[in-house]
Specification:
The complex is a heterodimer of chains A (about 475) and B (about 200). Chain A is of the alpha+beta class. Chain A is built from 9 helices and 28 strands. By secondary structure, chain B is α+β, with helices and mostly antiparallel strands. In chain B, α2 (about 80-95) runs antiparallel to α4 (about 135-155) and α4 packs across α5. Classes of the chains: A alpha+beta (about 475), B alpha+beta (about 200). The interface of A and B includes residues 383 and 428 of A.
Chain lengths: ~475, ~200
């Protein structure tokens, strides 16, 4: 009997240890699966963009070439163990696996060793504050903990105060136009700035003499800034002063259709639960960008394998950065929809384009076959109900904008031909063009001749994007939006 | 003392063993030198008996990125659904040929075509077709337009087409051409006109 009891106790103990180990394993798996991808957001006068941060040996690293690419003319040469980088007229030299470097002939010491992976030079994020000013020749501010980097004096500051005549209204004034993502939950409203260089006020916590809105806090994390407003009543965000003023005011009953515009379609819900009304009020959206440039593919979706080492998703991102620069140099404010190596679904891309209310949506693709540039408008799918009153069918939301999209393609084709770039205009069953409510085109860029490496040549990228920007600029009045 | 005859017999047997060993080694070397013939993955299509009929195939040409109408004579059954299958199989056979103007991956095939009134054709392709298809907006739309236009030109009454992969809906053919929606045959007809014009 005693022996049997001991065996039972042993079995019971083993079972408990097994259960604890299993729970620990599940917890570790859940935690590792939930870890979000880290980003470094870069703000400069040339462009605002974000890059993926990779972790090596417990330290955060970022690709130096990718970081500098949108800021100027940059090239890199790998001659192991040396890695040389030219930025405009500045030469920086790094030794693979070493913390020693030379920038403009002066020695520099990195906090952790320099890494070279598949030709990509990776530098520790903690070294950017010391090496970037030497390379760029100007001041650089790095918020290392939150992954934000400011090149020059580009920061956007803000003030927040309760309206003197109505204590339930909170007014934010920003020094530059902003377009945050607005989200609500009971008792809180979040303004998240993913693309703007918004910086902290003097104190991270702001208190107000208002029972309705007692306080707000400022925080930064993973390349974004966030203002959290605590409130005791539901609030609605209103944008004014060309995006430089945001007023949070109590919700007044109004037709839902006026909040987001009667014709802005939203993606079909993935599950029935998604059809439930949001807990917060509908969010107004102001027009902020003239053009939305969408670097197709990204993250897990590599697109076409253009060569053994060249993925379509990387080429489209490089072209997107160039196109933004070219459009903005013509006074057309531009948002790059996929600004880093992340996975975005077609529905997410279309929803972002529709809610931004931009004048034109441009999807970028790259191809190894053929030569020159192919321009596409949507080949609408079969549908019997194009007219649903104020609402649009998600799959044919583009229907009423097809003539404008075709006019945009014609204008861009003319500009490309003027620059002697081989061009062809077609329709294509290509999502998310059919889901976008505004003028929407796709640009598929093939090499000028048989050499596929031309797709990564800055000269070719600039030639094509400059012509595309000329075409968009030529039709700006017809697209009917103020930049 | 071992008898002399036994010594001779054992010697002869040993020589025979060595000789056969050498011959086997030589043959093994020759066999290794002969290249293994690639497995022909082309689908084996049941031969269709009966008279041939003139049909129009819309064939994709990658070099110029165009579709060309091409006449062919293939055995065509009388049942509408089987006619549709034969048409697309003829097209696939063309694309799987060595001198294909628009190569499809080895093993590409259609699993079936279902004609549902009014005017719907459901084309079910196999996984090898979609998984191995080249990626690219033009490359994919050439395939889609070639199939749909060939069906519409030879099987009257088709207004819309749905393409499935292994019986299931797939978002795109190879990252670009949208397969999640129904193709409008009249819109594909216009696309074909665009694709028939060279650059």
């Amino acid at each position: 009997m005693n022996a049997g009891g001991a065996t039972d106790r042993k079995q019971s103990l083993c079972g408990k240890w097994f259960a604890v180990a299993l729970l620990l394993l599940i917890a570790v798996l859940l935690l590792s699966a939930a870890a979000p991808e880290k980003h470094l957001s870069v703000y400069s006068t040339a462009a605002n963009y974000s890059l993926p941060i990779v972790e090596r040996d417990g330290h955060d690293y970022v690709g130096l070439l990718e970081l500098l690419e949108p800021l100027g003319t940059v090239s890199a040469k790998s001659e192991p163990p040396r890695w040389r980088l030219h930025y405009n007229n500045v030469l920086a030299e790094f030794a693979v696996g070493s913390t020693r470097a030379r920038v403009q002939g002066r020695d520099a010491v990195l906090p952790t060793k320099f890494l070279l992976e598949n030709g990509r030079g990776l530098v520790p994020v903690s070294s950017l504050a010391s090496i970037l000013p030497r390379i760029l020749g100007g001041p650089v501010t790095v918020h290392e903990e939150s992954g934000r980097l400011f090149v020059g004096s580009v920061a956007t500051h803000f003030t927040a105060s309760v309206s003197p005549d109505d204590s339930s209204r909170l007014v934010f004034h920003f020094t530059s136009p902003v377009n945050p993502t607005v989200a609500t939950e009971p008792g809180k409203i979040y303004l998240t700035f993913n693309h703007e260089p918004v910086t902290s006020p003097a104190s991270a916590t702001l208190t107000f003499a208002s029972k309705a809105i007692p306080s707000a806090t400022y925080s930064e994390s993973n390349g974004a800034a966030r203002i959290t407003v605590n409130s005791t009543i539901p609030l609605l965000a209103n944008f004014s002063n060309d995006g430089q003023t945001i007023t949070l005011a109590p919700v007044k009953s109004q037709p839902a259709s006026t909040a987001v515009g009667p014709s802005a379609p939203t993606p079909p819900p993935a599950n029935p639960a998604a059809q439930l009304p949001a807990s917060g009020p509908p969010l107004p959206v102001s027009r902020r960008y003239f053009a939305i440039v969408d670097a197709s593919h990204g993250g897990n979706d590599r697109g076409e394998a253009l060569s053994a080492s060249l993925a379509e998703k990387d080429v489209t991102l490089a072209f997107a950065h160039w196109l933004r620069q070219e459009l903005e140099s013509r006074g057309l404010s531009t948002l790059v929809l996929r600004d880093s190596d992340v996975t975005l679904s077609f529905d997410e891309r279309a929803a972002a384009a529709n809610t931004a209310h931009a004048a034109v949506y441009i999807a970028l693709h790259a191809a190894s076959s053929g030569h020159g540039v192919r321009l596409y408008t949507t080949l609408l799918p079969y549908s019997v109900d194009y007219d649903n009153g104020p609402f649009r069918v998600w799959t044919t939301a583009q229907q009423s904008s097809v003539p404008l999209s075709q006019a945009t393609v014609a204008s861009v084709a003319t500009a490309l031909k003027k620059d002697e770039i081989n061009v062809r205009s077609l329709t294509a069953p290509l999502r998310p063009l059919n889901n976008v409510i505004t003028a929407a085109i796709a640009v598929e860029i093939a090499p000028p001749a048989s050499d596929i490496s031309a797709l990564v040549s800055p000269a070719y990228q600039q030639l094509v994007t400059s012509a595309v920007a000329d075409g968009i600029s030529a039709i700006r009045s017809q697209l009917g939006a103020t930049p | 003392m071992i008898p002399r005859s036994l010594v001779i017999a054992i010697s002869v047997l040993l020589l025979a063993v060595l000789g056969m060993g050498f011959y086997a080694w030589h043959m093994r070397g020759r066999a290794a030198a002969v290249p293994v013939v690639a497995t022909d993955m082309r689908p084996v299509v049941a031969p269709v008996a009966g008279p041939t009929e003139a049909v129009t195939l819309f064939v994709a040409y990658d070099d110029l990125g165009v579709l060309r109408a091409q006449s062919a004579r293939i055995p065509m059954p009388s049942v509408r659904q089987q006619r549709a299958e034969e048409l697309l199989r003829a097209l696939i056979a063309l694309y799987l040929d060595k001198s294909s103007p628009h190569p499809l991956p080895p093993g590409a095939d259609i699993r079936g075509i279902y004609l549902v009134d009014p005017g719907l054709a459901v084309v079910d392709i196999n996984a090898a077709f979609a998984d191995g298809h080249r990626s690219g907006v033009l490359a994919e739309e050439l395939t889609v337009a070639s199939f749909i236009q060939t069906l519409a030109a030879n099987v009257p009454g088709i207004l819309r087409v749905k393409i499935l992969v292994e019986g299931k809906e797939r978002e795109t053919l190879a990252g670009h051409a949208d397969l999640s929606n129904f193709f409008d045959v009249s819109a594909v007809n216009q696309l074909t006109s665009q694709l028939q014009a060279t650059q």
